[in-house]
User: Which sequence fits this backbone?
């Protein structure tokens, strides 16, 4: 738990992996949770056709429209944003959400879930879309999940968030 700090975790998940990581992080950080929803419908990316659409959107850096959030990012000290890596980059719904609402974020942390690779590029694209440098980042890959090492990575990420928020609060208090 991050004492005296309101945290929001915003995520997009096509297959459920990122949702699982976001839910576990929310429990570890005592955070509120909100999924990113696309305007195209509840499940526009399901199945093989949805997978192909996702890959093409990522490769072409296509824009997508997202629904307005139910929770206001500006009401939170920290917003943690996560999504899957698609074709070596950030997924379209996460980029769209960060471009639309990134200016409302006070402090940002980012995470991504990847199958093969691309987390560095995805995290960089997410940071750029938000227009902010994240306090902490985390990449969880398929080997971490199947080897049950994702818990260690989530713990390290949560600890880094707590430490950097505490240091930032102390610095802001001194000023």
Assistant:
């Amino acid at each position: 738990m991050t004492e005296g700090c309101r945290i929001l975790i915003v995520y997009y998940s096509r297959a459920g992996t990122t949702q699982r990581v976001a839910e576990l992080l929310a429990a570890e950080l005592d955070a509120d949770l909100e999924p990113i929803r696309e305007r195209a419908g509840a499940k526009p990316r399901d199945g093989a056709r949805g997978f192909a659409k996702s890959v093409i959107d990522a490769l072409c850096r296509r824009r997508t429209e997202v629904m307005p959030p139910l929770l206001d990012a500006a009401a939170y000290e920290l917003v943690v944003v996560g999504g899957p890596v698609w074709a070596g980059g950030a997924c379209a719904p996460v980029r769209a959400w960060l471009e639309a609402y990134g200016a409302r974020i006070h402090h940002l942390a980012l995470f991504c879930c990847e199958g093969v690779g691309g987390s560095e590029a995805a995290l960089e694209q997410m940071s750029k879309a938000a227009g902010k440098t994240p306090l902490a980042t985390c990449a969880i890959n398929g080997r971490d999940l199947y080897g049950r090492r994702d818990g260690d990575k989530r713990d390290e990420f949560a600890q880094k968030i707590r430490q950097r928020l505490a240091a930032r609060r102390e610095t802001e208090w001194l000023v």
Remarks:
- The first strand starts at residue 7 and ends at 11.
- The domain at 7-174 is CATH 3.40.50.360 (Rossmann fold).
- The two ends are 26 Å apart (CA to CA).
- The chain is about 45% helix and 20% strand.
